[in-house]
Amino acid sequence: MNKIIQKSLQIASFNNIVYYTNKCNKQLMTFDDSIGVDPIGVLSVLNKYNVSSIFFLTGEYIMLNQAVVKQAVSDGHKIYNHSMNHDNFNELSYREIVISIKSTQKLIEKIAKSNDRIIRPPYGILNLKVIFACLLNKFKIMMWSSRGYEFAGLNKHQLLQNYLSQTTKCNNQIILMHPNMAESYEILEQLIIHKINEGIEFAHPEEIYGK
Ligand SMILES: [Zn+2]
């Protein structure tokens, strides 16, 4: 890679791509793809323990689930960009990536009433094309540091253990959960209770990148 590009990328990415909550020494809950099979269950657990979270949603989901998206926003959560159709950015051109993220962002502005420009690329695909498409369009990127592997066929007890074993090691984790099971809200509640008992504080989404 050209050295100037490499250097610019290092500088740009230093402030604009995060895997951890960095300075704030807390843990952040983030959810991908949906507000849950049982969104009311997920939102009520978060409200019960006062945990503000981020939902990375596709434009398609936002269009089809406007009421629950608005509910999440009014409960104090953030809705951020996860492409239009859970696109595989490896298969799209630079221009197609930009169209996907900008059209999703328009829906976020319209329905979730947010001007924050924060994205998590689907499948965590982060190559140079994706990084440039995001950063040059003034998006910041939020990855994650620990996750539960919901698609590995684990039951809810195994999944909870999986989260706990990954996230106790260090205090500044960004936790990724896919709330894709009917019992996801139960796992979430147990996870939050464990963390509160361990003295861990949850970060507010705005503590990572600001408003
Ligand atoms: Zn996803």
Derived from helix and strand composition plus strand pairing, the structural class reads: alpha/beta
Q: How many domains?
A: 1
What bound compounds does this protein have?
zinc ion
Helical run tally:
9
Largest sheet: 5 strands, parallel
User: How much β-strand is present in the residues?
Assistant: 5-15%
CATH level-two architecture: Alpha-Beta Barrel
* Cross-sheet strand order for the largest sheet: 4-3-2-8-7
Mean pLDDT: 91
Query: What separation lies between the terminal Cα atoms?
Result: 33 Å
DSSP helix fraction: 40-55%
Topology, number of strands: 8
Q: Which regions contain 5 or more consecutive residues with pLDDT less than 50?
A: none
Model description:
The protein is built from 9 helices and 8 strands. The chain is of the alpha/beta class and 211 residues long. The strands form 2 sheets. A 5-stranded parallel sheet has the order 4-3-2-8-7. It has a 3-stranded parallel sheet with strand order 1-6-5. The protein is globular, with a radius of gyration of 17 Å. The structure holds zinc ion. The site of zinc ion has 5 residues, from loops.
Write the layout of secondary structure elements.
Elements lengths: L2 H14 E2 L9 E5 L6 H10 L5 E4 L1 H6 L1 H9 L3 E4 L12 H18 L6 E2 L8 H8 L4 E3 L3 E2 L8 H12 L6 E4 L6 H14 L8 H4 L2
Parallel strand pairs: 1-6, 2-3, 2-8, 3-4, 5-6, 7-8
The structure holds zinc ion (ZN).
Based on the model shown, name its key terms.
single chain, 211 residues, alpha/beta, TIM Barrel, 3-stranded parallel sheet, 45% helix, 12% strand, globular, binds zinc ion
